[in-house]
């Protein structure tokens, strides 16, 4: 009798869990944000946020924040933005510290007048499962998450999001992001291209990758030259950093719990000379930078990474953990007590870091998808030198001729950076004075780059 009662209770609990999880793909009106606490009045654009299920059997749902364009959203493209980590929030990092319409400051939201929703309808996705407000009701979904799982979930998210927002289904679509999104984005775009062969759903017009991880060894090992050329390490340390133990070898050893004495010695010397008082994500600007820059956690293993100022992150964390804010966002905490910038429950397969995605980028170009790779030139974590090398090499492999020779580009009356274009389909650009998170540190120049990318036009040659 007792056993029967327990079985009945177990079935009832399972049914209750099912009911708690079921998220109907309703009209977008159900997700409309009436007003975020502290936001300015008289906004000219609408905001939406909520959940989209990506796996009913495993009870997985991804959280999104969607901001329509400031003017004439019906004529503007749709842009999906993904942050890296793996495991860091596109809501907290991308939307609220980089290129979204607001930045938290105390109890209010301050307008970002260089928000990317001036040019597009911006969709920010908290991915993978376990990041930010995204969740699964079974914690096993947070274990052994990898690039393939993430790409599949992101594809299903977009399919189901279009069911919520059918008026965006055939809109020009761009996928953008930074850092480890150099893995997320190409693999998602590849799935979109493959899906379109069966059912033409995604009107993919291009991808943009900011300071991205594309090829492990080239990206990581360009760090030594960057440190040396910017005066962060000595000649002798540069020599051992490139001969005795380079950075890709150290990271390989670190994530296999087998750091050799020689690598440990080299990394200690590098850390001592570069100083814990220099932010590796922005080696020159003396500004208050947030530890949300830890969206590159696997790129900077704990042994050699330094804590940076948390002033900006504190504002974001405090704001997004307010109950009234979560209510306004239609968000909930499942399996965690607090919203965090980077997930502490996600077990990501960090060795995916070693799988190159530059070849996937090449396949997208062959499929006719324009690609922009851009670099904040003050970032030593994924330096511009590695990205430029990879783009140039890819252009050569694909037989793409230079269509815009290497030159400066302008924003306002100042040089915004440098650019080169291959075959009118593959572009490389730097953003002068920008950190790893370019829109955070150089919002005006980043917006100009974004605008030119969407319009398919060369960056301005004159001011």
Automatic annotation (TrEMBL):
Keywords: Carboxypeptidase, Disulfide bond, Glycoprotein, Hydrolase, Protease, Secreted, Signal. Its main location: secreted. Its EC number is 3.4.16.-. GO terms for cellular component: extracellular region; vacuole. It comes from the Eukaryota. One of its GO terms (biological process) is proteolysis. The keyword Protease applies. It is found in: Secreted. One of its GO terms (molecular function) is serine-type carboxypeptidase activity. Residues 1-27 form the signal peptide. Transmembrane segments: none annotated. The keyword Protease applies. Probable carboxypeptidase. Belongs to the peptidase S10 family. This is Carboxypeptidase.
């Amino acid at each position: 009798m007792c056993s029967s009662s327990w079985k009945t209770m177990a079935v009832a609990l399972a049914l209750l869990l099912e009911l708690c999880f079921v998220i109907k793909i309703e009209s977008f009106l159900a997700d409309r944000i009436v007003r975020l606490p502290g936001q300015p009045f008289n906004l000219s654009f609408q905001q939406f946020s909520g959940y989209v299920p990506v796996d009913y059997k495993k009870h997985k749902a991804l959280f999104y924040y969607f901001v329509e364009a400031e003017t004439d959203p019906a004529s503007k493209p749709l842009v999906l933005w993904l942050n890296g980590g793996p495991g860091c929030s596109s809501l907290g990092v991308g939307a609220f510290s980089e290129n979204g319409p607001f930045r938290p400051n105390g109890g209010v939201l301050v307008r970002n007048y260089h928000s990317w929703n001036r040019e597009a309808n911006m969709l920010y996705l908290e991915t993978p499962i376990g990041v930010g407000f995204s969740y699964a009701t079974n914690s096993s979904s947070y274990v052994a998450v990898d690039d393939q799982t993430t790409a599949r979930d992101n594809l299903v998210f977009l399919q189901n999001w279009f069911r919520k927002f059918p008026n965006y289904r055939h809109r020009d679509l761009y996928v953008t992001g930074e850092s480890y999104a150099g893995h997320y984005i190409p693999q998602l775009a590849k799935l979109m291209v493959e899906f379109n062969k069966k059912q033409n759903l995604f009107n993919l017009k291009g991808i943009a990758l900011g300071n991205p991880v594309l090829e492990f060894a080239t990206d990581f090992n360009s760090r030594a030259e960057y440190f040396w050329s910017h005066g962060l390490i000595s000649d002798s340390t540069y020599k051992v950093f490139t001969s005795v133990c380079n950075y890709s070898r150290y990271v390989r050893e670190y994530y296999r719990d087998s750091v050799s004495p020689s690598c440990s010695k080299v990394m200690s010397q590098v850390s001592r000379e570069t100083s814990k008082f220099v932010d590796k994500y922005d080696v020159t600007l003396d500004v208050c930078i947030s530890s949300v820059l830890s969206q590159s956690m696997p790129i900077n293993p704990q042994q050699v990474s330094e804590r940076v100022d948390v002033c900006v992150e504190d504002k974001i964390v405090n704001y997004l953990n307010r109950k009234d804010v979560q209510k306004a966002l239609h968000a909930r905490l499942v399996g965690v007590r607090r919203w965090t910038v980077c997930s502490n429950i996600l077990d990501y397969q960090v060795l995916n870091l070693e799988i190159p995605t530059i070849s996937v980028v090449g396949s997208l170009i062959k499929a006719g998808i324009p690609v922009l790779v851009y670099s904040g030139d003050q970032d030593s974590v994924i330096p511009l030198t590695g990205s430029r090398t990879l783009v140039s090499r890819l252009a050569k492999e694909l037989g793409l001729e230079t269509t815009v020779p290497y030159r400066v580009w302008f924003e306002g009356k100042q040089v915004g950076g440098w650019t080169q274009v291959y075959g009118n389909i593959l572009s490389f650009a730097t953003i002068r004075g920008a950190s790893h998170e370019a829109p955070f540190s150089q919002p005006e120049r980043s917006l100009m780059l974004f605008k030119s990318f969407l319009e398919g036009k060369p960056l301005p040659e004159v001011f």
